[in-house]
Amino acid sequence: MKVAILGTGYVGLSTGVSLAEIGHQVCCIDVDEAKINQLQQGISPIYEPGMEEFLTRNIAAGRLRFTTSHRQGVAGAEIVILAVGTPQREDGSADLTYLVEAAKDLAAYLEQETIVVIKSTVPVGTNDEVRKILEANCHEDVSVKMVANPEFLRQGSALKDTLEADRIIIGSDHQQAASKVKEMYSPLKVPCMLTSVRSAEMIKYASNAFLATKISFINAVANLCEAVGADVTDVAKGMGMDKRIGNHFLNAGIGYGGSCFPKDVKALWHTTRNEEVDFGVLAETMRINDEQQVRLVKKTLKRFAGDVSGKKIAMLGLSFKPETDDMREAPSIKIAQELTKLGAHVAAYDPVATKNAKRVIGESISYADTLLEAVTDADAVLVVTEWQEMKQMDIASLGEVMKQVIIFDGRNCLDEEQLRNCKNIEYHPIGRPAII
Ligand code: NAD
Fold first, then answer.
1. Mean pLDDT for the chain?
2. Which catalysed reactions does the entry list for this protein (predicted)?
3. If one looks up domain 204-291 in CATH, what number appears?
C-alpha cells in the first residue's frame, strides 16, 4: 500500500519505519527541514533503540522516503496518516494548531478517495472537525474518509511497541475505510478493535488517564507505607498477584512525566469541565503527581536539617524515563529548579539527555560527562531516572569519592543486596524502609 505520514516525531517516524518494514511504500513528510535532511541520510533525530537500523534498511530497500513537500509526499497515497504534535495549551486543553495546519497543508493534494487517519492524540470530536477542514479546502471531487487510530507506543521501546502492540484501535464511521486500515496493519498480526470515531478518540485518553491514575495511586500508597513502616514493593507485588489488579504500572517512584501522561490527563480533565461531568479522580491524580515529583527534594531537605545551601547534590538521570533523550515534563526539571532555589549545587548526569536538558533546565546546574564526575565530592546522590548505568553503579566505591554516601532513590532501582553489603551508607528509597 502507498502511505503518507505527516509528522516525523516519535509517533510518525516509528509508524513510518514499521509500515515500511512490513512491506508498504511509505513517504514521511515534515515541515522541519533539518529533521528531513537527517532522516534522508538514515540518521535518527531522536534517540530510540533500533531506529537507525530500521531507517537504513528500509531506505535502502526503496520502501521509505522523506520529504518536506506535502505535494510530493501525498501524491498517490491511499492512506494519509496525521501524526503531528498536540501539545497542551496554558489552560490544559489540547492545542490543535499543528493538526489544523497539517490538514490545510494536506487538503489541496488529496486525490479522489483518500483515507485520512488521525494518529495524534486528539479530544473527542476532533476527527469531525478535521474532516470539515479537509472538505472545505480540497477539490470538490475528493471524498475524505476519516479513521481515528490512536497510538499507544512508549518512547524507549517505540518500535517494539508498534510491531508487537497489544491492540490496534480503528475508529471509523465508514466500514470500507476501517477495513482498509485494518488490512494495512494485517502483517503485524496484532488484534484490531473496530469502533466508532468518538469511542476510538476516547479510548486513548481513558487509557492514559487510567495508567496515570495507577501511578499516582501506588505513589500515594508508597507515602503511606513510609508513614506506617510497610514496604511498597511487597505491597505492590501482593496487590499485583490479583489478576483483577495486574502487576504492571505499580512501581512507586517520583511520578509520571513525559510528552503524554501529563498533557493527556490535563486535556481529559479539561473535557470533563467543558461537559460538566464530575471526574474528580483526575484532579487527584494530577495533584499527587505534582507533589511526588518534588518528594526527593523534601526528603533531602529533611535529611540536611532544612538547609542544603552549598551542598553538592548529584542528580543521576535527566530524561523522563530510561532509553529516551526526551525531557518533556521530566521530574528532573522540577527537582533541579527546587534544589537550585534552595542554594544547592546540582551536578547532573544522564547518558543521552544532557543536550536536551541544557535547553530546558539551562545553566543553573552543572552537567557532568560521567557518573563518576557527578558523584565526586557530592553530599548526596538523587537517582531520578532508572537507566541501566544507574542500576548497575558500584555503590561500594561511592565512599571513595563522595563526602558521605547518602542516596535518595526516586525509582527504587538500586540493587538491594549490594546496598545491604555496603558499610557507611544511607539509602532512602520511596515507600520502603531506609537502610542506615
Ligand atoms: P513530536 O513533537 O515528536 O513530532 C511532531 C512532528 O510533527 C514534528 O517533527 C513537527 O515538525 C511535525 N509537524 C508539525 N506540523 C507539521 C505539518 N503541518 N506537516 C508535517 N509535519 C508537521 O510528536 P510525537 O511525540 O510524535 O507525538 C505526536 C502525537 O502522538 C501527539 O498527539 C502525541 O500526544 C501522540 N502520542 C505520542 C506518543 C509518544 O510517546 N511520543 C505516544 C502516543 C501518542
1. 96
2. UDP-alpha-D-glucose + 2 NAD(+) + H2O = UDP-alpha-D-glucuronate + 2 NADH + 3 H(+)
3. 1.10.1040.10
- For residue 61, pLDDT over 90 is answered with yes
Q: What is the value of pTM for the model shown?
A: 0.94
Residue of 14, 30, 68 to test ligand 1 pocket, by largest number of atoms within 8 Å of CB: 30
* Annotated domain spans of the chain: 2-193, 204-291, 294-428
Long-range contact set of residues 52-60: C-beta below 8 Å, sequence gap at least 24: 54/17, 54/18, 54/20, 54/21, 54/159, 55/17, 57/21, 58/17, 58/20, 58/21, 58/26
Helix residue ranges, H only, 168-196: 175-185
pLDDT above 90: residue 417:
no
Q: Same CATH fold, 294-428 and 204-291? A: no
- For residue 154, the ligand 1 atom closest to its alpha carbon is 40
Tell which one of 6, 8, 11, 13 to mutate to probe ligand 1, the residue whose CB is within 8 A of the most ligand atoms.
Answer: 11
Superfamily grouping for domain 294-428: NAD(P)-binding Rossmann-like Domain (3.40.50.720)
In ligand 1, the atom with minimum distance to the C-alpha of 10 is: 26
Q: Measure the CA–CA gap between 229 and 432, rounded to whole angstroms.
A: 8
DSSP string, 234-297: HHHHHHHTSTTT-STT---SS---SSSHHHHHHHHHHHHHHTT---HHHHHHHHHHHHHHTHHH
User: Is residue 337 within 8 Å of residue 365, measured between CB atoms?
Assistant: no
CATH topology assigned to domain 2-193: Rossmann fold (3.40.50)
In terms of residues, how long is the chain?
436
Q: Is 260 a catalytic residue?
A: yes
At 430, give phi and psi (nearest 5°).
Answer: -105, 120
